[in-house]
Amino acid sequence: EVQLVESGGGMVQPGGSLRLSCAASGFTFSSYDMSWVRQAPGKGPEWVSGITWNGGSTYYAESMKGRFTISRDNAKNTLYLQMTSLKSEDTAVYSCSAGTYWGPGTQVTVSS
Q1: Which stretch of DSSP H or E encloses residue 30?
Q2: CA neighbor of 61 nearest in space, from 43, 45, 77
Q3: Type and span of the H or E element at 40
Q4: CA proximity to 95, closest of 86, 84, 87, 104
Q5: Cβ(33)–Cβ(79) under 8 Å?
Q6: Residue 33 buriedness (CB in 10 A; 0-12 / 13-18 / 19+)
Q7: Are strands 106-110 and 58-60 parallel, antiparallel or unpaired?
């Protein structure tokens, strides 16, 4: 059974940082390109960032470039998202994705 479990969310002030993790199991993690997506209240899903199966290439939505860093540890079956310079508009539920599989997400709230 494919499982994706996110953690690391929380409440942070504008300008702060958070590191999200996604623990994967039930499939060959090291063979899959992975992504982070987010959904803000009242809005549809938004793609945030992606990384190839070996970590060789990374991709970011325009508004995240320079602030977010995606990475992975295939030995630990874990995906990461380092978020810095957080803004109120980054408030959302962040989920990791492997193909058509999504995790339940972790809440990130940016507020003073």
Answers
A1: none
A2: 45
A3: none
A4: 104
A5: no
A6: middle
A7: unpaired
Q: Which two tokens stand for residue 91?
A: 């408030």
**Model confidence pLDDT, tens digit, residues 74-85:** 999 999 999 999
What does R_g of the chain's alpha carbons equal in angstroms?
A: 13
pLDDT band at 97 (very low <50, low <70, confident <90, very high): very high
What are the backbone angles phi and psi of residue 105, rounded to the nearest 5°? 100, 165
Query: Do residues 96 and 32 make contact, with C-beta atoms less than 8 angstroms apart?
Result: no
Q: How is 55-111 classified by DSSP, letter by letter?
A: S--EEE-GGGTTTEEEEEETTTTEEEEEE-S--GGG-EEEEEEETTEE---EEEEE-
Contacts of 101 (CB under 8 A, 6+ apart): 2, 4, 27
Rounded CA-CA distance 4/96 in Å is: 7
Each residue's pLDDT tens digit, 22-80? 999 999 999 999 999 999 999 999 999 999 999 999 999 999 999 999 999 999 999 99
